[in-house]
Design brief:
By secondary structure, the protein is of the alpha+beta class. The chain is about 30% helix and about 35% strand. The longest helix is centred in the N-terminal third of the chain and has 18 residues, at about 20-35. The protein is globular, with a radius of gyration of 13 Å.
Amino acid sequence: MNPNILVIFTIHTDNLPENFQEIIKHEQEVVNAWKEEGILEHLFLRPTKNGAVLVFSGIELIKAKQLIESLPLYPFVQSVDYFPLMKQF
């Protein structure tokens, strides 16, 4: 059984490109597709608007890393932390 994987994603907010809103729109399309596939359980935006917390389900850690690296915002990454979790209830 694959664990849930918590991902904390933080981006640099200095010197964002002029087309940042377009990148955000594409980002939303990507994560919505993950939700539809059933691999993304939760997406929480951070109040500071510099990142998000995602909870994946049913995939291996290596797959979660590949998915995060495919995000349109990934070139602006400051840090990404991965935490495999075992759901208790």
